Amino acid sequence: MLTISNNPTRKGLSVFRPNVIYSTASGVELTMDMLIPQRADTDHSRNPVIVFIQGSAWHFPDTTYEIPQLARFSAAGYTVATVRHRNIDDGYPAPAFLQDVKTAIRFLRAHADQFQIDDKQIYSFGTSSGGNTSLLLGLTGDDSRFKTSEYAEYSDSVCAVIDCFGPTDLTAMMPQDPALLDPETSNMINAFCGGTYNPKILQLVSPIFYVEKGKNYVPFLIAHGNADPLVPFSQSEQMVKRLEECGADVSFICVDHAEHEGSFWSLPLLDLFIEFFKICCLALLVNSPITICTQS
Fold first, then answer.
1. CB 254 within 8 Å of CB 226
2. pLDDT exceeding 90 applies to what percent of the chain?
3. 3 state SS of 227
4. What are the residues facing 223 on neighbouring strands?
5. How far apart are CA 102 and CA 143, in angstroms?
6. Cα 76–77–80 angle (5° rounding)?
7. What is the CATH number of the domain that holds 281?
8. Domain residues for 150?
9. Which of 86, 39, 34 has its CA nearest to residue 64?
10. CB-based contacts of 132: which residues, under 8 Å, 6+ apart?
11. Which among 63, 71, 176, 274 has most CB atoms closer than 10 A?
């Protein structure tokens, strides 16, 4: 017979709470799925929060796609909220996706007691279009252009950002003549812009245009595969360069020979991400800059 110790603190265990409604204001029921660390009944501590945005080309995100990987973050002590936003194909152009995720963040702060979360430690993490959103969250905290009336008394700012292969300059990804786009891409861009191609909308939701000297920035970690066929690796390179030029604390991970999703992911990479968030948590507690060792 094998005898092992019990787990009175329930360390490493999580509860899955699907379809938590965070907004109905637009007439659309918007939800998030949550992974919440289990705890002893006598433990009233609060967890830091990771808001995750799954890549979807700004359509309707499949929030279950990364749940197995996100469970690793929950086991490390983070409440994870993977957020669904409105779909450009349903007539909700940019910046609706950003407004929705910001509303979700304010919802979490408004319900911090209910979910036992630390509203001073909310981080963003996203992939592809969700990486774009994650960067925008870190660069446009409490920007009135993207704030709706729901939970308006709460902040939608985040304390640190992870972006995986997200577009950083949508204007640079478009040909000079939009007529050169293939029909499928053209239809997507038109829906994204609200009906017709509009470079001002593309710039509005391109993170690189928000990076300026003289501003204070949260820490950033950007990761990208150098064989990505969908979002050019140079998009992340240019973003990192711009953040560095403007004095931001930014770490850059190149995943060698990785394409978009798929082989990009590994347990060592996820562990680096968890380490990044842990360092950010400690930095907030002691009010000091972060240092993280990354691969290049």
1. yes
2. 85
3. coil
4. 164, 253
5. 10
6. 100
7. 3.40.50.1820
8. 14-286
9. 34
10. 126, 163, 166, 167, 168, 170, 205, 207
11. 63
* pLDDT tens track for 37-76: 999 888 999 999 999 999 999 998 988 889 999 999 999 9
Q: What are phi and psi of 9, to 5 degrees?
A: -90, -10
Q: How many domains does the chain have?
A: 1
d(CA 262, CA 224): 12
Instruction: Report in angstroms the alpha-carbon separations of 72 from 10, 67, 69, 140, 270.
Output: 15, 9, 6, 28, 8
Tell whether 227 is covered by a domain: yes
Strands 30-37 and 117-127: unpaired
Q: Please state the separation of Cα 1 from the chain's center in Å.
A: 46
Q: Does residue 66 lie in a domain region?
A: yes
pLDDT at res. 284: 77
**How buried is residue 117: exposed, middle or buried, by Cβ count under 10 Å (0-12/13-18/19+)?**
buried
d(CA 260, CA 262): 6
- In this prediction the pTM is 0.94
User: Of all helices (H) and strands (E), which one includes residue 267?
Assistant: helix 267-286
Does any domain span residue 3? no
Residue 123 confidence (pLDDT) above 90: yes
- Mapping DSSP onto H, E and C, the string for 76-111 reads CCCEEEEECCCCHHHCCCCCHHHHHHHHHHHHHHHC
**Residue type, position 182, single letter:** D
